[in-house]
Amino acid sequence: MHSSNHIIKFADDTTVVDNLSLNVDKTKEMFVDFRRTRRDHSPLHIDGSTVEIVKSTKFLGVHLAEDLTWPLNTSTITKKAQQRLYFLRRLRKAHLPPPILTTFYRGTIESSCITAWFGNCTASDRKSLQRVVRTAEKIIGASLPTITDIYTTRCIRKANSIVDDHTHPSHTLFTLLPSGKRYRSIRALTSRLCNSFFPQAIRLFNNQSLV
After folding, report:
1. pTM, to two decimals
2. Is the pLDDT confidence value at 94 over 90?
3. What gap in Å lies between CA 68 and CA 185, rounded to an integer?
4. Helical H runs in the chain?
5. Suppose 100 and one of 22, 96, 148, 207 were both cysteines; which one would form an S-S bond, judging by CB atoms 3.0 to 4.6 Å apart?
6. Whole-number Å distance between alpha carbons of 164 and 155
7. What's the mean pLDDT in 177-195?
8. Over the stretch 138-166, which tens digit does the pLDDT of each residue have?
């Protein structure tokens, strides 16, 4: 590694910065701009080549759209899950017991990175995802957590790991109130921010304290 490189620890994947050699053909540029008056953005040029501007891109298995909506991501996840249900049916026909089928479901079908996008999914998107869960339940012959329960559990698990790690960049977003029992809410002026991970996680923490 070059001596001037540095590693970003909390990136979703280990990221080495500086002295990178970019493949311009594989590099994409996406603008996320919610200003009322949008301006034309000048294209990015690298080594004399223009970087392609896209309206959506895939990053670590998640489809990101320029308006930060999730229909494309949800439809892709649903399609893949339905394809993998075929293998779950094959395992069922091989008379594997429900615990093994459940393990296969959780490892290959259950939605990943759900904390990043589920909060802002539409009701229609959530119904599509839940239909996959119901189908898997019928195949396995056992009850499974709903898609909302999966999201809630993973939100709390992720938030707990951030709270316990004082070196995490987002640790300071979880600030206890003087009572020491509830966390200070994050002010959100848009539903997009209100439904994103950090405000949702704090609400889940605070709701737990009321139980």
Report:
1. 0.78
2. yes
3. 22
4. 71-93, 98-108, 114-117, 123-140, 147-164, 191-194, 197-210
5. 96
6. 14
7. 90
8. 999 999 999 999 999 999 999 999 999 99
